[in-house]
Known about the structure:
The complex is a heterotrimer.
Chain A: H1 6-11, H2 18-35, H3 37-54, H4 56-59, H5 93-129, H6 131-145, H7 149-160, H8 164-190, H9 194-201, H10 206-242, H11 254-261, H12 269-297
Chain B: H1 8-13, H2 15-46, H3 51-56, H4 62-71, H5 78-90, H6 104-139, H7 144-158, H8 161-175, H9 187-190, H10 200-206, H11 210-247, H12 250-258, H13 262-291, H14 293-299, H15 305-314, H16 318-346, H17 348-353
Helix pairs in contact in B: 2-16, 6-7, 6-11, 6-13, 6-16, 7-11, 8-11, 8-14, 10-11, 11-13, 13-16, 14-15, 15-16
Chain C: H1 2-20, E1 32-37, H2 53-60, E2 67-70, E3 73-79, E4 82-87, E5 93-98, H3 113-125, H4 131-134, H5 143-146, E6 147-149, E7 154-158, H6 165-173, H7 182-187, H8 196-199, E8 209-215, E9 219-224, E10 237-242, H9 246-255, E11 260-261, H10 266-272, E12 278-293, H11 303-310, H12 315-320, E13 327-329, H13 351-361, E14 368-374, H14 377-391, E15 396-402, H15 404-412, E16 418-423, H16 431-437, H17 452-455, H18 461-472, H19 476-493, E17 496-509, E18 512-513, E19 530-531
Parallel strand pairs in C: 1-10, 1-11, 14-15, 14-16
Antiparallel strand pairs in C: 2-3, 4-5, 5-7, 6-7, 8-9, 9-10, 11-17, 12-16, 12-17, 13-17, 18-19
Helix pairs in contact in C: 11-13, 18-19
Amino acid sequence: MSDVSTRDWLLSDRPASRRQARLGQAYRTWSQLRRNKLAMVGLGIVVVLIVMAIFANVIAPDDPIRGGDLRTMRLLPPSWSHLMGTDDQARDIFSRIVHGSRLTLMVVAMVAVIATPIGLAVGTTAGYFGGWVDVVLMRTTDIFLAFPRLILALAFVAALGPGIENAIIAIAITSWPPYARLARAETLQIRDADYIAAIRLQGAGRARIIWGHIVPLCLSSVIVRVTLDMAGIILTAAGLGFLGLGAQPPQPEWGAMIAAGRRFMIDFWWVATMPGIAIFVVSLGFNLLGDGLRDVLDPKGET
Amino acid sequence: MSVSPANEGGRWRALPILGLKAGKLIATVAVTFLGLLVVTFLIGRVVPVDPVLAVVGDRASKSTYDAAYIALGLDKPLYQQFFIYLKQALSGDLGVSVLTKKPIIEDIARVFPATLELATAGIILGTLFGVPLGVWGAVRQGRLPDQVIRVVGLVGYSAPIFWLGLLGLLVFYAKLQWVAGPGRIDIAYEYTVTQTTGLLLIDTAMQGEWGAFRNVLAHLALPATLLGYFSMAYISRMTRSFMLAELGQEYIITARVKGVAEWRIIWVHALRNAAVPLVTVIALSYAGLLEGSVLTETVFAWPGLGQYLTNSLQNADMNAVLGGTLVIGIIFVGLNLLSDLLYTVLDPRVRRRS
Amino acid sequence: MTHFSKFLAAAIVTGALGLTSVPVQAETPPDTLIQAWQLDDIISLDPAEVFEFTASEILGNSYQPLVGYDVNDVSDIFGVIAEKWEVSEDGKTFTFTIKPDLQFASGNPITAADPVYSIQRAVKLDKSPAFILTQFGLTADNVDQMVRQTGDMTFELEMDKAYAPTLLLYCLTATVGFVVDKELVVSHEVDGDFGYEWLKTNYAGSGPFTIREWRANDVVVMERNDNFSGDAPAMARAIYRHIPEGSTQRLLLEQGDIDIARNLGAEEIVALADNPDLKIEDGIKGSIYYMGLNQKSEFLSNPLVAEAMKYLVDYQTIADTIMNGKVKVHQAFLPEGFLGALDDNPYSLDVEKAKALLAEAGYPDGFTVTMDTRNTPEITAIAEAIQQTMAQAGIMLELIPGDGQQTLTKYRARSHDIYIGRWGPDYQDPHTNADTFARNPDNSDDAASKPLAWRNAWDIPEMTAAADAAVLEKDAGTRAEMYLALQREHQQVSPFVIMFQEIEVLGIRNNVNGFIIGPSFNDNSFRNVTKTE
């Protein structure tokens, strides 16, 4: 093996182990993705976001929460000492945006971690069992889908109390139904496939079939969908922040920063524009990456 | 017809199933609405806001407060409150808004046309631009136009709509004065127009008030363009992928071999077959615009359902929230079922199982 | 495919032309006054129910009270519908005489039957503002005897105690004392509801303007009342447009789409000051910004902590920057302009002093408390600024934002630590604020009345007695002294950090003149507004 290059090992059409097969698949995905320039731009943005979040303390020149002198340092335009200017509480906007990346990343990660398993479980179960199980689960899903998403999140935050954690829970609660529908549709297509029937004949239990065989097959399209939705999650979080129901002041959450800055929009354009650009760039990054991933993983097309 | 799509006959065979589905539809809708009612009712009870406050305000004496408490039925047990809600909702009575003091139905009838007009203008713009752009992107797959269209679409997906709205107002209204400002119509015109349909474009046109008509158009332009842009992003993307799927079909190759003109293949054969799933996409996107109007209406001071809902929610006017949510729910569930039906008709794999 | 791209280009160009060719109207009609205001707090147009700033202003321009006062000197009280009044020997009964030959917008003549009906109706309906009348001992059961018509143009009003005479008169200037057209309202009565269902959205008054239409969260349309007894207003129509955002109002104002913007922020005011087409006018209002420290909290119930906190707000800087032009520093519970208002502002930011007080209280390293903050931009900005100065002395302030109803629900349940808010007086008599800041007759959790002192669990039997004594004092000079003493003590010991008094600021087009800004919202008047070309 040692004389065979890693690349050849990864691309071998006769993988010797499951692990080799999986790694090979991942490598093929990666090399396809790498050819997509836009996806690479997206990946770059996401990586920058992660780096920014990790090293926020090092990158940010000023304290994101404690402001300067209200009389002399409010609403200063962008300059070398304040790259993005200062806000109405005399805080450095650049430092706030850098620290805000942590909140954004946290929201996205937590929502994905909470919503994906719920959607997968509901969708695959409904699709596999069919009948009344399907009806009950999908009607529940429809009920959640039938709500205006932002309003539902808003209502949940109102019920749970404002705050970034509750905003995350609220967004997660409103995010899973599309994944459930997607997983169900995928399950419907594969549940009668021959190899599933073969596994069933071998005596595998329903739970094992769903979790061991159906879920993994649904996973890739659901993950693509989640990646695509990440931009939406960021925008919903920003919308909640904009309405004053997300992160609490003085936390540097980008949506809340726009809300605070829109009063100054006309004369002090940078206060609301800078966090807007941050939201836009990051959600564009996730969209570009998700788009590229879909092309690679789900060549059948859209879902 | 020289070229016929593979599943042409399938649509006709689906008719009996369609009837069966229609029967189930009523039951489905009933169950969904019951669920809607339960969820809104529960949210309304969990919200840490005293509903009496919204009625009598902060300064009322205790006797005033108690009278309102009983009038709202809050002294009854929770399940009884729910059944009262349910009974009234079923008889078409969604209650009276705490804020406007009018029946919810009346309120919604008043604000809904504003949202409908905006969303309709948005979806028309989105479709007019989205479909051709999607087709173009599919035809030029991977080349420059495709990339440009894709990026333009992704920008639409990525920008916070309230932020774009604010920037748009700043640039096109405040600086360039190309469009009219927030609201649906200039106050100067507002009382020359009688609202019969509530859709101001139609009302002004019917009354021949062309000055007012242009004014309504000037107000509609910016928010409708914004919503149109967002739905265009979605529609062009979906059109592109449907077209790609169709253009890879055998009947297209057959047509090409037979020497059918390329424009005809694209615009007649392929697009016609992509059209049916596309209608579903447009319908869903339409519903999305109706529900997604919350932030846009806030930015543009648009007196529609989105603003009504946010405002009601913030004032703990749960009757109004329930009513507004029900209306959007009806539209959404209806369009979802429609999309289900269409897919049943279209995709033989799914139909076989049902 | 090239003709396709041509088609597309053509479509885009046509679209763009379609937008640009639309003319933008930029002037309001000469006989119409158009104001942009956040109108979403209107819940009723019935004087017996109205309690909100916006609706009171609308009623102030469309109804008339029995008595009024000079907006520049509120101690000058005069009759409006009443010609004169007398107080009985025992100080408990007022006899009012109605001016002859007045009529309502409907054409019905105004007689003593109308004010009697209006007061009885408000007491019996018992809506939010009813307490302003019921505090004189009027109840649904006795109001028919206590308020009685004695002639065509005379009636008597009897109270349970001999209150300071100005108290009743000021209470009658509040919207709940406005006179409604009895004949018209009675004709719309359903099941003995005193026309309540009808009047919520309709009009039965005698003021300079009539209310033609109110569409919730959208618009209020008023028209000149041709039967008005005074000089006819120059404006044929006055329209309020619901525009929630200050920045949007500013745009509309700059474009000339509206005449007056009512919710401008501090930065907008500064920006508009340089615009030659506009002017900024302001007037001091009675509302007070304060923090309430809940005495149920272990930290906040320590008087030294409360005192330290009064040194941890940078009053003047906030008033000069984030609230520039919209507030003035004011640290007593009676607002400027009221009888006996205290003008001293003894507190300013002094971190060292606060630290010493905290150390003395046993918290040298500070502590963490929460503050319920209404999510309006201004309250939030003030709260954030306070958060920063508190942190300098080690007090970590966690803000809990919420909408108005939410924070209020929590406040009224006494489950907050600190509440930051705004309090507006209900009428022009000092008792209105003394009643809430300095009276707490029952501090138990299920008390019937919930004044601000109760909400912060501040048990003050002596101060309550002092406030009760002040309201019965007949001599205005002595009464003013009593309130001054009350405020001085309150300023030192109370768990209220009183910070600012509100200034109302209007952005007005240059061609609009004559808008009067009064001390309360129902004093704001546009009946004398004129427009020049």
